[in-house]
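Task card 7
Instruction: Convert sequence to structure tokens.
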Amino acid sequence: MKVMINRSTVTLIEGDITKEETDAIVNAANSGLRGGGGVDGAIHRAGGPAIMEECRQIGHCQTGHAVITTGGKLKAKFVIHTVGPVYMGGDKGEAELLACAYRESMKIASKKKLKSISFPAISAGVYGYPLHEAARIALSTIISYLKEYKDIEKVRLVLFDKKTYDGFKEELKKLL
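Output:
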């Protein structure tokens, strides 16, 4: 599914984020930037040791914040590592922290003058965020950013499976 927001294209696809050719891909990282399971582990495996080396130098990233490293062996030039919140019922500031994770990633892309960025479904896997709520927050944050800033031309949401893709597609239709 593809939509235009100002001059930017937002695309939802089911796929593997490590194969993306955008300027940057976003990693759903842990706060220690140590690699791990899911998207994080896949990005570190596909990108090679250069990414982990830079992550070690950076050391830490707080929930809702983002940092950038090389893309290593990936097709993407950069990896923006952001830490989404662990879902703990929804009344502990999780929604704002998740929105911040997307917004901070977009800000880094803008600051680096990147034209394209690919996101996974941050916090919607092992961090337990309810899919539809995570999708609504992700999409509304991205759309708001693109309405205000016109420098990023292409945003792709690369969703791991059909269930996640369908959840994001439903929420995008509601927002439009």
